[in-house]
Amino acid sequence: MFQGSLVALVTPMRADGAVDEEALRALVEFHVAEGTDAIVAVGTTGESATLSEAEHCRVIARVVEFAAGRIPVIAGTGANATDEAIRLTRCAREAGADACLLVTPYYNKPTQEGLYLHHRAVAEAVDIPQILYNVPGRTAVDMQPETVARLAEIPNIVGLKDATGDLDRFHRERELCPGDFVIYSGDDATAMELMLAGARGDISVTANVAPRLMHEMCTAAVNGERERAAAINGRLMPLHKGLFVESNPIPVKWALYEMGRIPEGIRLPLTPLSPQYREPLRRQLQEAGLLS
Questions:
Q1: At what angle do helices 211-222 and 21-34 cross, to 10 degrees?
Q2: Catalytic residues
């Protein structure tokens, strides 16, 4: 399975909100060159909630095309309607994605049994490795470790992105799930500790702007090299926090624009980074050696 720094890739957009495929191509090349271990396309950071199904499928297909087998591609295919999640997951399989990442159904607030049946239905409908994604701060639903363990028994449900930042929960998930079930951090600020405790990588927002450093930090942490990982992570910690001063992906898209890597577009209801946060984030990028 995938391990290390898995970038939660932004979807570049022009000022009018249209997807910029040339900027997307350039981002894929950037991550290949900088050592990112895998690309997660069209997840939360990729503004999946405001892309149409056709756009969603096209972005996945283009990322797979641009990656050209040089780096694994995990497609974000979660939705709060089970049928839609199945359609998106089929699109990803047909496009040649290596795996899919499926967020818990948001807004509906399903029960734990509903979560189990939703993810089981997608897994049974589409034969592709699938990674669960639990982010209760955004979805208003929290998949409990016991539900994760039930789903881990399904052969093509192979892992979990845990974005709770809760180390105790990670240990509970690890205790309940099979040894070959892979857990990833989905919270940059706590990812190092989770990897040192046994997580296999970080599905990362920070990796958008600091791919080389995140690759090096994740590699060290997965290998148990605490001192090396902590030294790199200390350099990145201001960014781990600064990239969440407003809702993701608002800050990271502004940072990439400031770095000259993408146009300034972002789709409503998200808006560009508020002016009062721009200079502090610019300084954090400079201090990390990412901006002159």
A1: 40
A2: 133, 161
